[in-house]
Amino acid sequence: MEMISAISAAVISLLSVLLGIYLFKWVSKHPVGSDRIREIGEAIREGANAFLRKEYTILMFFSIAICALLAIFLGLSSAIAFIVGAISSAIAGLLGMKVALKANVRTATAADKEGLSKAFLIAFRGGSVMGLLVVGLALAGVSLIYAITLKPEILLSFSFGASILSLFAKAGGGIFTKTADISADLVGKVEIGIPEDDPRNPAVIADNVGDNVGDVAGMGADLFDSYVASIVAAMVLGQTLGVKMVVLPLILASVGIVSSVVGIFSVRVRREKNPGRALDFGTYITSAVFALTTLVISLIMSYDLKYWGAAMAGLVAGTVIGFTTDYFTSIDRRFVKKTAQASQSGAAITILTGYSYGLMSLLPSLAGIGVASGVAFALCGVFGIAISAVSMLAIVGMVISSDAYGPIVDNAKGISEQSGLSEEVISMTDKLDAAGNTSKAITKGFAIGAAGLTVIALLATYQERVAAITGFTITFDLMNPLVMLGLLIGICVPALFSAMIMLGVSKNAFRMIAEIRRQFKEIKGLSEGTAKPNYARCVEIATTGALKELMLPSLIAIGITLLVAFIGGIHALGGFLGGAILSGLFNALLMSNSGGMWDNSKKFIEDGAFGGKGSDAHKAAVIGDTVGDPFKDTAGPSLNTLITVISLVASLISPLVILYAVFK
Amino acid sequence: MEMISAISAAVISLLSVLLGIYLFKWVSKHPVGSDRIREIGEAIREGANAFLRKEYTILMFFSIAICALLAIFLGLSSAIAFIVGAISSAIAGLLGMKVALKANVRTATAADKEGLSKAFLIAFRGGSVMGLLVVGLALAGVSLIYAITLKPEILLSFSFGASILSLFAKAGGGIFTKTADISADLVGKVEIGIPEDDPRNPAVIADNVGDNVGDVAGMGADLFDSYVASIVAAMVLGQTLGVKMVVLPLILASVGIVSSVVGIFSVRVRREKNPGRALDFGTYITSAVFALTTLVISLIMSYDLKYWGAAMAGLVAGTVIGFTTDYFTSIDRRFVKKTAQASQSGAAITILTGYSYGLMSLLPSLAGIGVASGVAFALCGVFGIAISAVSMLAIVGMVISSDAYGPIVDNAKGISEQSGLSEEVISMTDKLDAAGNTSKAITKGFAIGAAGLTVIALLATYQERVAAITGFTITFDLMNPLVMLGLLIGICVPALFSAMIMLGVSKNAFRMIAEIRRQFKEIKGLSEGTAKPNYARCVEIATTGALKELMLPSLIAIGITLLVAFIGGIHALGGFLGGAILSGLFNALLMSNSGGMWDNSKKFIEDGAFGGKGSDAHKAAVIGDTVGDPFKDTAGPSLNTLITVISLVASLISPLVILYAVFK
């Protein structure tokens, strides 16, 4: 039974990979319009490749170091699983980005030559390549390693590899993209006075690269990481607790992939020409197919229906969190409009209002995670929590597809503008772009919610592993002072990490600003448009800086984890994990939602409200948006990954902590 | 033994009250200079009285409602204790403010006629009245109620009364002061173009009143509340756990009062004319006397020295947190300077930098609280945590004295400017004012740290009470899904509360802005200075609005507590308390420290750095400061009180929750 499930999961996931490759070819065979489009696309591609080359080189050295540590302390198979995890996630990210960079120019071309429906389909299927590859490669890795070793704990190392890659891709990409964004704006728009996305700006390509690096590759790696972590947590818990259904997570994930494929191929812009509704429809179809198929399988196989209940708790929670995020950050809702209105009283009131609404947005999402985990627990214990996390993430193939659609059409819009396509085409790409916003907001909420359930499951995994090794039941009582000390330190670590990342963006932006100013000064004819800027140099600065600013906070976060573990012992480490989870979710949601609100309230004013572009309200809203940028695109979304990494480190080192900690 | 300690505590505390009244008279007998000074002082006094009258009226109805509930569910003695607690704190606040309003004009006069030393002494002793009355009335209430009933649990209601008053005084005062501040600036400085503190501005008196209402009465009520709560938590824990030293908290508090008196009377500006050093000296003397006297008493009475150790853990933690706050927010340190430097790149970077440093400032303080409670626990169990909280707060008589000095000299400075005293006098009051900043920063950190240890002790109190009633040991295991649900909801409540309070400031400011504009339009000759504005109307609007904006968030916070308790049961309530404590401390520190940083970085620029007043950097710093104002003076400091209120509610209702909750 175990073997059959693992092998069918492997087969389904490999089919998913093949389907991804097929769509990759399908996108590639579409034509690229003018030479100008080709040229811009080429520059973005070069920049993105430069970033990835550098990132993967540094990552390689880093990974070899971790690999060596794992090999020494936990054995060779752990080290190998770690590397396979990192590489699988890297491949998914790499191919996903490659296709995004093909799809953007082809979407612009199709909008010009063939109309909305075709342009939409190219963009969406471009995104689907990432979706299918992420779930395919992730599940293939998990199921093959399990089929070979039949030891779920080896999978912890596989998951750890994916997490470390995700930390680099998400946080590093986040620093990169905001560095480029802020400095391109500050020098280009403010100092020199040229429009946004003007090809004379040396940072413009870095800015375009950033969207792909942060939003495509970063989000893909983030969800790869959560997806794997949830499956692994469930399998390790299942084995440690002696649940018969150890392979249930593999079955759920397999059904999720099939459902996503059904969803992906049902997405099409129909007569009403509404791309947003098409994306939503895909998600509904996927969820419905998933819910029904799992129910039917449960009935046929006579599984206890409580497992299905736990799975549905996760699916419902994911939806609630997604809609909360949309409600708080959508341009059509009251919170965004009120924030925009507050901009009339200046930047300070804009900041205070958006921040306050961000604080208010936490309760429904966090209560949703709490209730889902409570229901799942009531049905099938801690294993149920893990199952609900797996189910929430099972449909991630579809979720990523509509999310990656966003940056592709965003890029297509920029390319249409830069290559001088007609007004009609630009407004069509605008319509395509607007449709991406809701799915983007929902995905962010979804990613945080899924990470929440996953890390709660990982906390349980840690607890059960410790119990299994020591032979004692272990509780993390709030009133145990070591647990409380752990909690108090734990809530500080995501704060410290996000602070250092945000300061890193500023520092890095200063370096890049100096370079942009230098080019405008030293390259003759640049301002007049007769000479070309050195795009590659800006990309290089953003890349090197981003990776540099990422290293210290990552090492500090892992260092504090090890300190707490080996001084405070297993109880302090349990409290620390709990604190990091609570604070991580709190700050991730706060930053994402406030940032989203400021972004959209600026757009709302630009659409003509409260005086429109150039008004005082607009100036205030721009300041809000600039504060929100590193909030929502750098610090906030990195926190998911950070808490997953910390949780996996805790589970991995638990055998050593039990032996060597100062306090036992 | 119990009786003797309680009665000596009562005697010492009544002596403290008498000494406070003596200093009240001492301050009052000093002369008030010109009629102009008298007139301004009169207007501020009227406004402050108007606020307090209104506040106490609303509070009375609110208290009667709570009283009735307490009488029905917990018995008459609880209801009486509640009212005594609220009234004692109200009297301390009322008299403390009355003397502050006498001391401010007399300090200005003394600066004019008698020089720095005398002016300093009047201001400091004015602050000491509040210090002595707070500790005197608080300890008198606790020790007398205990001497009469010998039942520590009745004291929970006394403490609850003080907390509810503190919530109104601190949060209501905080909304009041920022409403006045923001609207006076927005209309006066920005729209009409008159200087700050100009008597033509209808909101100028409300602004002066706000400093007293928020910083004097509010801070006094806040520390009254924490002081009482720590003593009560220790006594209830001592009794529930069967510790022999139930009255130890009373002994520590008595020694603390004596030490504070020694400290207060040793404060004097000596030859070097450094008021800041004089204040610091008083705190050192008090701490040293406290540490030595408690050691000597422990040795004489042959108490186990572990109690003394726990007491010192609290004292040391208080100092660490105070200095961390100072380090992060002092105008002489790197973080403030770097934030000021960031202002050169605009408002957004100012906000991001200050916020990031605020996030970084959490770790030392929270780790300090964690280590102190850990050490205290290791020495004498949960009772030790409560003892360390009591000791940290024992010297609060001295702490309040130097803190209340701040707004007095701030007011004296404003009065000197408004009544046209000489440049030399103004610069003298400036020097006095600058000395208050460090103690103010330290007090804020101190107040949060003390609240932290106190609420951890209150969590223990809740746990032990539940255990005592049910007869079972109870643990709040992080992996119990009800505890986790409680934690997840708990961390949202301080966020929701502070968000609503901050939005309340904006709403209230809009009402007041409308009134100021109306006065400038309708009162002929106001802009020219030939007619007088209607100060009282502005005070009334700020008052009514502040109390209105406070009610909803307070009711929601208490309502959620009751919901979690009666649906989720004792485990969910325990988790909820834990979550509220963690999030309360996190956000209180973050907001206080970021706010302090923005405030001082603006001052740093105004002192001439990065282009000085009027430069672009200054404009950006002003936006940072305006964001920081409600952070540090409204939302941040209210959170201490909020979490104390929630914790006391939990302990009070625990017998009912055990009986009636949906989940047991």
Write a compact overview of the structure shown.
Chains A, B: Its main location: membrane. The structure is a homodimer of 664-residue chains. Chain A is mainly α.
Quaternary organisation: homodimer
Biggest β-sheet of chain A, characterized? none
Q: Beta-sheet strand percentage of chain A? A: under 5%
Q: What level of helicity do the residues of chain A show?
A: over 70%
How many E strands of chain A? 0
What is the string of SSEs of chain A from the N terminus onward?
HHHHHHHHHHHHHHHHHH
Report the structural category of chain A. mainly alpha
The low-confidence parts of chain A are none
The whole-angstrom Rg of chain A is: 24 Å
Q: Greatest chain-chain interface?
A: A-B, 73 and 73 residues
Shape of chain A: globular
The number of distinct helices of chain A, counting runs of at least 4 residues, comes to 18
| Termini gap of chain A | 40 Å
Keywords (chains A, B): Cell membrane, Hydrogen ion transport, Ion transport, Magnesium, Membrane, Translocase, Transmembrane, Transmembrane helix, Transport
GO molecular function (chains A, B): diphosphate hydrolysis-driven proton transmembrane transporter activity; inorganic diphosphate phosphatase activity; magnesium ion binding
Function (chains A, B): Proton pump that utilizes the energy of pyrophosphate hydrolysis as the driving force for proton movement across the membrane. Generates a proton motive force.
Organism (chains A, B): Mesotoga prima MesG1.Ag.4.2
